[in-house]
Write a structure and sequence with these properties.
By secondary structure, the chain is of the alpha+beta class. The chain has two domains: 3-121 and 259-277, Probable inorganic polyphosphate/atp-NAD kinase, domain 1 (Rossmann fold, 3-Layer(aba) Sandwich), CATH 3.40.50; 124-255, Tumour Suppressor Smad4. It has helices spanning 13-28, 68-78, 104-112, 184-187, 270-277, and strands at 3-8, 32-36, 49-50, 61-66, 85-89, 117-121, 124-130, 133-139, 142-147, 154-160, 163-170, 172-176, 199-205, 215-218, 223-228, 233-237, 240-245, 250-255, 260-264. The longest helix has 16 residues, at 13-28.
Length: 283
């Protein structure tokens, strides 16, 4: 008997229906389904509600039913305890997901038969200091420090490995993992990095300065961003609004202690996925 966590996009009826069907499929085979209370928006899910603070403990697998945002949320829930994540694309782009909805039950059969592989993905540890309070977050994609008001820039003093590097005047600065290089970083014209690589990418967004290039750093390096000047900034981690930062507040980014573990079936061809998701064609 195994416990399987089901994390679904609560605003998509297809995701909720698929979670119900998956829970019933698991129960029929002697397994235990878990869902979060916030996801149990239909009565058929209520019997599987599990406390959020204990959701990941003892799971054999976490299944993400949604798009890339749901994948990021699922990884955040289970990454630190080493639970593999199977992504089911009940969304639009689904860049991080592995199977389509119609392939879920075949994928579960293969998982329980041991016919799968796990692809580790580097994460980012984000330590935040706001006044006297400190907090820590894990990101699969990126941490972004950005302006709070249209028409203004934010100023960020940047240090690399405790040595001052430069001060950015920009709409924001992205600190991304290789997985996150095809997310906001890509929109900001940052480099695309193979997700199996280990690196940290720093990309300024609409920099108001001569130096506006992205940096690709070693995974062992530590980046510190401090808000300077007289304008506040906002911190967003994997799409979640974390905090407003006043001048003097700072964050530090480094490689996470735990990789995200993504379930795959066969070799995951990054170049093929890149071509398919972005509509690239052969010449």
């Amino acid at each position: 008997m195994a416990s399987v966590g089901l994390v679904c996009h609560g605003m998509r009826a297809e995701a909720l229906d698929l979670a119900c069907a998956a829970g019933e499929w698991l129960n029929e085979r002697g397994h235990v389904a878990r869902v979060l209370k916030d996801d149990a928006r239909v009565s058929r899910l209520e019997e599987w509600v599990h406390p959020a603070e204990d959701f990941a403990r003892g799971l054999a697998l976490a299944v993400s039913l949604g798009g890339d945002g749901t994948m990021l949320r699922t990884v955040d829930l289970v990454c630190e305890v080493g639970v593999p994540v199977l992504g089911v694309n009940v969304g639009h782009l689904g860049y991080l997901t592995e199977v389509e909805p119609e392939g879920l039950f075949d994928a579960l059969e293969r998982f329980f038969a041991g016919d799968y592989a796990v692809e580790p993905r580097m994460t980012l540890q984000v330590d935040v200091q706001v006044g006297a309070a400190s907090s820590q977050y894990i990101a699969l994609n990126e941490a972004v420090v950005e302006k709070t008001r249209s028409g203004h820039t934010v100023r960020l003093a940047t240090s690399l490995n405790d040595r001052p590097f430069t001060s950015y005047a920009a709409d924001g600065v992205i600190v991304a993992t290789p997985t996150g290089s095809t997310a906001y970083n890509l929109s900001a014209r940052g480099p695309i990095v193979s997700p199996r690589h280990r690196a940290i990418v720093i990309t300024p967004v609409s920099a108001h300065m001569l130096f506006d290039r992205a940096l690709v750093l070693d995974a062992d390096e530590v980046i510190r961003l401090e808000v300077i000047g007289d304008r506040p900034a906002a911190l967003v981690v994997d799409g979640r609004a974390i905090a407003n930062l006043d001048p003097g507040d700072a964050l530090q980014c480094r490689a996470g202690a735990h990789d995200a573990l993504l379930v795959t079936f066969g070799h995951r061809d990054f170049h093929r996925i890149l071509k398919a998701k972005f509509g690239l064609t052969d010449r």
